[in-house]
Amino acid sequence: MRLNVYIPRPSFSSYLCYPDMFGHYKEFSQHAERRTANYLPFYNLHFIFAGKGYVKEAGRWIELTAGNGFLYGKNLVQEYKADLQEPWDIRWIHFDGVGLEQLFAGKGWGAAWLFSFGKIDRFIQLTDDLYRLGEVFESTNEPKISAVLYEILVELLQNSEDLQGLSLLTYKDKIRRSADYIQANCTRSLKLEEMAAIAGYSSYYFNRMFHQIMDKTPFQYLLECRILHAKALLVSSRMSIKQIALESGFAQSSYFIQIFRRYEQVPPNEYRKMYS
User: Fold this and answer.
1) DSSP code at position 165
2) Domain HTH araC/xylS-type, which positions (predicted)?
C-alpha cells in the first residue's frame, strides 16, 4: 500500500504549520530514501505503527519499530529504509510553517530526532483526519488542515521522548491520568494520598513526579481547577460569592476571594461584572 497526498500551497502565508505532502506506506519493503543536504526544504516527520525499518545517523543504521518515529529538519541529509522482511507501517508528513524552530526547541535541527511516542490510537485518528481533508481538498479547508497538523505536532511534543528516555512516557501517562481525575473531582475535598493512588505512586513520589511533568504541584493544579470552575459559575449563574466558593471546593469564602484575586488580579465580584 502506498498513499501519497499532495497539497497546493496555502493562500495564507502565516500558518504556524502547513503540509506540503503526506502519506501512508504499508507492506512496501522497497521504501527507501536517500536525500542530500538542501534537497528537501521541509520538515519530514514519520510515525511507525507496525513492522520495522532503519534510519542512518552518524554512519550507522538505527533500528526503529512500532511506537518509534523520526523527524528531520529542513534541508538535512536524510537516509532511511524499511526492513525487507518486516516492512514498517509508516505515516509521514512533509511540512513547513512560521515559528517551528521555537516549537520544536531544536529537535531535528542539526540531525534527525529519533523518538518514541504514546497515544498511538490518537495519532492514527489525527493522521486519518489529515488524509481525509487532503484527498478531497478544498481551499476553504486550509485552516482545518493547518489546525489538524498543529494538533499532531503538539500531541507529539507532549507524548514523546527521545529514544534513550522511553520510561518517562509511562510516568507522563500516569500523571496526566491523575491530573484528569483532579480536574473532574476538583469541587470536593481531595487528599494527596487519593491523587497519588490514581497514578499508583506513593504520595512523596507522586508529588515530585507531578511537579516535574506538570510544572506545578498537585495542590497548585487543584486550585487552578477550582478557580476555573468558579469563573464559570460567576459568569453563568446568580449564585452568591459564598455559594460559589462552596460549590468550587473552598470551605471559606474569604480564602476563595484571596486565591481568586491571586490568580485573576481582581476579586470575584469584579470578575463577574467584567464578564457576565
Assistant:
1) G
2) 176-274
Q: Is 215 left (phi over 0), alpha (psi -120 to 50) or beta?
A: left
What nine digits make up the cell of 208? 515530585
What is the distance between the alpha carbons of residues 182 and 218, in angstroms, rounded to a whole number? 8
Contact 241, 269 (CB under 8 A): yes
Classify 200 in phi/psi space as left (phi over 0), alpha (psi -120 to 50) or beta.
Answer: left
Cell numbers 522497497 correspond to what residue?
30
Asked if CATH classification 1.10.10.60 holds for the domain at 166-276, the reply, yes or no, is: yes
Q: Which residues pair with 2 in a beta bridge?
A: 25
Exposure b/e, 164-193, CB count within 10 A at least 16 = b = eeeeebebbebbbebbebbeebbeeebebe
Q: Please answer whether residues 182 and 222 qualify as being in contact, where contact means their C-beta atoms are separated by less than 8 angstroms.
A: yes
Domain chopping of the chain, boundaries: 2-164, 166-276
Fold exhibited by the domain 2-164: Jelly Rolls (2.60.120)
Residue-wise pLDDT for 61-87, tens only, equals: 999 999 999 999 999 989 999 999 999
Note the pTM of the prediction, 2 decimals: 0.68
